[in-house]
Every structure is written in C-alpha cells, then in structure tokens.
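User: Run a structure prediction on this.
Assistant: Running it now.
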Amino acid sequence: MYNSYMSKGVFKTTKKNGDVYYRVSITYQGKHISLGSFDSASAASCAYKEAERLYRDSKLNLLNYKSCCKHLHPDKAITILNHRDNKMYIKTPIYLQNGYFSYFLRGVGELKFDNDDLFYYSSHRILIHDGHLYVNDYGMQYGILARFGIKNFAVAGKDYEFANGDPLDFRYQNIVVINRYHGVTRKPYGNTFRHEARIHINGEFLIGRYTDDNIAAIAYNKAVDAARDAGIAKNFIQNYVVDYTPKEYADAYTRIRLPKHYLAYLNQ
C-alpha cells in the first residue's frame, strides 16, 4: 500500500488486492474531515472542490446544496453545512435547528428530534429496512421508537400516534403512546376510557377492563402464567411493568382474578 499526493486534498492509495482508489479530505477551522473514497482522481478532486464551495459560499444551504454536489455524498454535505453554520462537526447527517435537530435520512427525508437525543444520534447512524427505522447498537438492532417505550409489535394509529400528524417528527411532545403494553388496548368506555387486557389462544379471551394500564398489563401477565401452567406451548410476550415496584407488582398480581370462562378453558 502507498500514498502519494495528487491534486489538493486527494490521496492516491491501493487496496490489499492492488486496486487503486483515491481518498479525499479537507481541513476547516482546524478540523480534518474525510470526504470519502473514489475510483478516479477526477471524481475525488471534484468532491473536494464541492466541499470547499459549501464551506465558502453562504448562499448554499439545506434547500439548494444539491445543485452543486454531484460527487460529494449528500450525508457529508449535511455535516459540512452544519459544521459551517453551527461550528460543530457531527459525523452523522445532522443539522442543528433552533431548539431541536434534523437528521436527514436518504430516501425518507428530514427526521426531527429533541436536543436530548443529540448525543445518541451523533454516534448512531439511522438505517431503514422495509420501512422500519433502526440503529445498530452493540451488535443488536433497535427501532428508534423503542426510545419512547413503543414496542416492536406496536401499530401506528392504534398503539401510538403523532400529535401533529407528521410521522417523521420524533420530538417527545409529538409522540403519543396509546397502548404501551402487549395484550393491552385502550378503548372508549362510556365517557372515559378503559384498558382491555386480552390474550389470544385459539381465539381471543377478554381478561378484564381496567382504569390503569399497568394493572391491565399485570392481568395479561397472569393470564399468560396460567396458560403456561396449563401446558399451552406458545411464545407469549410478557410485559415489564416499569411503573411498579416488585412489591406493588406482587400485590396487584395477587388481587387480580382471572375470568371463570378463561380458567374453564384452560382446565379442559
């Protein structure tokens, strides 16, 4: 492997198999920034000139930067604009706004987040697969909705909704969690709401209606325990009730009475 200087900011090097490629970098305000790798010296040089222009030309912004970026990756252009305007270099395609930040995901658009999440998304790149937004963390995939307590099985419009109708706005005030527990659904009941606990075993069984979704979640868990004790081999998802201490959970679990028709089914 070898390096040799080409045009400004461009370095010629080779892969282990002998193939030649060109790395590009630029320095701005004392920060050395990699612009990527290219197959040709001319493309690498163009990428450098585009980055240089983004730093120099204040007329270029989030709305029109693509007009000058034919070789520079869009994600890198966003980081440069943010570095230029906000004096902060962030490796992921984030642009700091007034009171929040935007994360620009190719093929999706502008995602909005509260500044509380800035540290996390500065070091975690958002990916998409089959419409599912996630990050890789310690070798595992985590949906970005999990940070709001929304489970993987949750359904938009049923279990959660976006207050302003924008499904790309992930600021905390815009996320409304309706049903946070498995087997629990909030439904209208007279002039108010009740949380229904239901379990599905060759059909659906209503376990009960409760004013507190934590109690409904515990009732569902108790129904799952009873099903397992009866020898029903099914991969049930149990709820972790975060709002209760172990003692409060145990007291509630003891007080809950499972419906007779459900117990009769299990005893068959």
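The radius of gyration is 27 Å.
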